[in-house]
Specification:
single chain, alpha/beta, OB fold (Dihydrolipoamide Acetyltransferase, E2P), Rossmann fold, 4 domains, five-stranded antiparallel β-sheet, 11 helices, 42% helix, AAA_lid_3, ATP hydrolysis activity
């Protein structure tokens, strides 16, 4: 009998007096649970379909409104020349001419002043709308939307003779700060075509604002920041670039999260407008190192060299009076080269003394006017 019974037949338990009733109850409870799950699923489907229906109805209404706007007759745009009476206005429509037109009842005639832009129906030439004043988009961009509430120290100028570690300090800042570091040379901003240099400066600060907080490092700033003189037409593009830089340093755009570090070895030729407080608030001089500093620099650059015992670094530093940090490093390099030429595995005191003589001789023959400037 159990084999002939279909799946709709409830199971019948023959063991015990309460077997048939408990089996029927269990069977119908399972059926009820299954039907309840089906009802819940159908209810969820119904709610989802209702939400989709509402979205489609909203789109249909939007499309109907757009269609209604497209079906409306077009309008001519003109300017009010004169109010002729209670409901008459003289309107100039380019390039057709001037017309005396009627004014719609919903239009306030007191707003129809001279040069007011209005819309006229193309079939009846009736004034039915007052348009806002037309402003060139380039002019509208000049409006200041947000004025900075306070100002912060933005610019730092590092100046001093060549080879004293100005760019090296900027590298250290880039390594130890958790911000975007942007490096640019002043020569890269000097462009051939008119407006290209100022555009690059403007886009440079736009990129810095997008990736704020950020630091802009400008090396050799004297190439674009030199003093302005009359009669030099060849430097007009350089002056435009500098004017844009001045505007970005002290303009209406927010520069709270942007700092600028500039480097130069000719602070005497920089323009006063660039050096004034508010643009360059800190000016840090990098002089040539003294004897103690040269000794420490020698120890740093000779740390990985195989030196002979008894080398007096202070004596070597005393022989390099007026040398820069780069020249001290060059002495260590030349001393190593002297040892390599003699096929030695170590560097001696004599190698350092010959290196000092060679480097100082090169420096004495080269650029004496600049050395006198920084003494």
């Amino acid at each position: 009998m159990s084999a002939l019974a279909g799946p709709l037949c409830p199971p019948v338990a023959m063991n015990g007096a309460e077997g048939p009733s408990s089996g029927l109850r269990h069977y119908y409870e399972q059926k009820i649970d299954g039907l309840q799950r089906v009802i819940n699923e159908k209810s969820q489907d119904k709610r989802r379909l209702e939400a989709q229906r509402n979205e489609l109805n909203a789109k249909v209404r939007e499309l109907r409104d757009e269609l209604q706007v497209l079906l409306e007759p077009g309008s001519y745009v003109g300017e009010v020349v004169k109010v002729m009476g209670r409901n008459k206005v003289l309107v100039k429509v380019n390039p057709e001419g001037k017309y005396v037109v009627d004014v719609a009842k919903n239009i306030d005639l007191s707003q129809c002043t001279v040069n007011t832009r209005v819309a006229l129906l193309n079939d009846s030439y009736r004034l039915h709308k007052i348009l806002p004043t037309k402003i060139d988009p380039l002019v509208s961009l000049m409006k200041v939307e947000k004025v900075p509430e306070s100002t912060y120290e933005m610019g730092v100028l590092l100046y001093g003779p060549p080879g004293t570690g100005k760019t090296l300090l900027a590298r250290a800042v880039a390594h130890h700060t958790d911000c975007t570091f942007i490096r640019v040379s002043g020569g890269e901003l000097v462009q051939k075509y008119i407006g290209e240099g100022s555009r690059m400066v403007r886009e440079l600060f736009v990129m810095a604002r997008e990736h704020a907080p950020s630091i802009i490092f400008m090396d050799e700033i004297d190439s674009i920041g030199s003093q302005r003189t009359e009669g030099e037409h060849g430097d007009s593009e350089v002056q435009r670039t500098m004017m844009e830089l001045l505007n970005q340093l002290d303009g209406f755009e927010s520069t709270q999260n942007i700092k600028v570090i500039m480097c130069t070895n000719r602070i005497d030729i920089l323009d006063d407008a660039l050096l004034r407080p508010g643009r360059i608030d800190r000016k840090i001089e990098f002089p040539n190192p003294n004897v103690d500093a040269r000794t420490e620099i020698l120890k740093i650059h000779s740390r990985k060299m195989n030196l002979m015992r008894g080398i007096d670094m202070r004596k070597i530093a005393q022989e390099m009076n007026g040398s820069s940090g780069a020249e001290v490093k060059a002495v260590c390099t030349e001393a190593g080269m002297f040892a390599l030429r003699e096929r030695r595995m170590f560097v001696t005191q004599e190698d350092f003394e010959m290196a000092v003589a060679k480097v100082m001789k090169k420096d004495a023959e080269k650029n004496m006017s600049l050395r006198k400037l920084w003494k």
